[in-house]
Structure formats: structure tokens, C-alpha cells
Amino acid sequence: MNSYPHPIIAREGWPFLAISVALAVAATLWCAVWSIPLWVIALFVLQFFRDPPREVPQDAGAVLSPADGRVIKVERTQDPYGQREAILISVFMNVFNVHSNRSPVDGKVERVQYFPGKFVNADLDKASSENERNAVVLTTNDGRTVTFVQVAGLIARRILCYIKPGDVLARGQRYGFIRFGSRVDVYLPLGANVKVSIGDRVSATTTILAILR
Predict the structure, then answer these.
(1) Residue 46 DSSP SS3
(2) Closest CA to 10 of 186, 177, 145, 193
(3) How far apart (Å, rounded) are the C-alpha atoms in residues 54 and 57?
(4) What is the C-alpha separation between 10 and 114, in angstroms, rounded?
(5) One domain, residues 158 and 188
(6) Which of 45-54, 97-106, 140-149, 158-167 has the highest mean pLDDT?
(7) How far apart are CA 128 and CA 51, in angstroms?
(8) Cα gap 65→210, rounded to integer Å
(9) What integer pLDDT is reported at residue 2 of this predicted model?
(10) At 141, phi and psi to the nearest 5?
(11) Do residues 61 and 104 lie in contact, with contact meaning Cβ atoms separated by under 8 Å?
(12) Domain limits at 186?
């Protein structure tokens, strides 16, 4: 199981949770009936920022899902960050998914690139190239390139990434967070054996997207 110093609730959520609960408590003291909507908001904030520990599959060559959500794209395309042809798997996260992002593979971070941009619906194809995004290019322990990109969405306005070039990641390791709905694009070598299809529901770390051969 991948260790994480802030289990259950993501560290990014504590300020939002504290504010929403404080407002709900204050409203309850003033008028219990009028506090109900604020308690609903507090519960929403609590579920959005949940960040449970996950079991890490040990299958050889496994590429793990970096996010919870639904697979919206599986195709052969150009990786604009790794400068190569690749297989793209895109995972769309709605506001009810866990938004903690995990490394899909073991390896060394070669580049981290942030791109400012728009905030169109992350479910649209153009979101990959037009929206605010943060790309990580990683070299696996056996020398292959895997790129994973955090893409902001219509509601998401904040991409958080905590790694830098030279860092070594273990698959399933937490490396970032996106607030309030978004997507993650994963670019894999052409020889990867894809294990998911469009429409599949996936879970960060526990779902195997593909096997590197």
C-alpha cells in the first residue's frame, strides 16, 4: 500500500473543509433550518477532498490509472510533450471522483511543464491542447517514456503538482491534485497492451490501464 502522510482527507482540502464547517456551525447557532444548505456544502467538500489509501498492483510492466474517473479516449496520436507517436488514454474526473493524482509507473521525472490556458469542458477533445495543463515526462526504469498530463476543466481552476525534474516516483505515489472536475491524459509507448476501453470506470492506482511490453 502506498504510504501517504495525510490519509483519508487530502491536505489541499483542510482549509475548504474548515471554512465550510465553521460557516455551517455558525448558521446552526443562528437558525438550524437555514444551516441545512451549508451542511450539505460541507458534506460535498468532505467527499470531494477524500483521499483514501490504495493498494498498488505489482504486475510487471503495469501502467496504473493516475486518477479516478471514466475513460473517454483511447487512440494512437502524437505526444506533444515527449515528441513521439504514442497511445493516448484519457481519464475524465467529475466533481464526485477522488481528485488526488498518482504516478502511473515507476521512473525518473525528466521534465515538468506548465501551460496556462482556457477552462473549457475537460470532456472535449480540444481541452488537451487548449486548457490549462501540467505535463510530466518520465523515463521508466527500463528506459521507456511515459507522459501524464493534468488538464484543468470547466470548473477546475487550480492544478497542483509537487514534483520536479530529477525526482524518482514509484507507481501509485501521490504527485498532485486538481480541484473540482478535470482530466488526466496518459501517453504510452506504441507497444503498450491497453487493458481499458472508452466508457470504463477506473480508480487511481488500483486500475491497470495498460501493460508495457
Answers:
(1) helix
(2) 177
(3) 9
(4) 22
(5) yes
(6) 140-149
(7) 25
(8) 9
(9) 44
(10) -65, -20
(11) no
(12) 62-211
71 domain residue, yes or no: yes
Strands across the sheet containing 133-140: 168-169, 107-115, 133-140, 145-152, 182-188, 84-93, 69-79, 201-202
The reply to whether 122 and 43 lie within a common domain is no
C-alpha cell at 84: 513521439
Classify 48 as helix, strand or coil: helix
Reported pTM: 0.83
H helix runs in 49-173, sequence order: 127-130
- Statement: residue 91 has pLDDT above 90: yes
Which residues belong to the active site? 182
Query: What cell numbers appear for 96 in the block?
Result: 464526485
Contact 128, 117 (CB under 8 A): no
Residue 163 pLDDT level (bands cut at 50, 70, 90)? very high
Instruction: Name the residue with cell 469542458.
Output: 121
